[in-house]
Amino acid sequence: MTQRPDQAFGEAVCTALRGQVEKLGLSIGPEPVWAAASFEEAVDPFSQETSVVAYWRGGARFGKASFFPDGRVFAEYQVLLPSPSDAERYIDTVQVWGNADKLRGEAVAAEYAR
Fold this sequence. Notes:
- With 114 residues, this protein is mainly beta.
- It has one domain (7-111).
- It has one helix at residues 7-22, and strands at 38-43, 50-56, 63-67, 73-82, 89-99, 102-111.
- Strands 1-2-3-4-5-6 form a 6-stranded antiparallel β-sheet, covered by helices on one side.
C-alpha cells in the first residue's frame, strides 16, 4: 500500500487550491476533498526518486498533487469556468506548489476554441 502524505499537509494543499479559485471571484465548492483522493507511487525517470501522487477522479473535475521526497508538492486542479475578467478566456486549472511552510499558486487561463 502506498504511504499517504501527511493529512494536514494534504488538506492545506486542497485549501490552497480552492483559495486560488476564490482569488478570482469564482467557486468550485468544497472541491477538492482530501479524503476523496486516491494515491499512487510514481518514480521520476531522471532522479529515480519515488513520489506519492494524489488523484481526484470521477467527479466533476480532475486533479493531481505530486508529493516529492524532499517535502515539496506540485498540485493542479481543474476549474473549467469562464474567466471573470476576459470573455475570450476560461480558467482551465489552478496550480499550487511549495512545501508545508509556504504554498504559492496561480490560475491557468485558456482561450475558447473558435
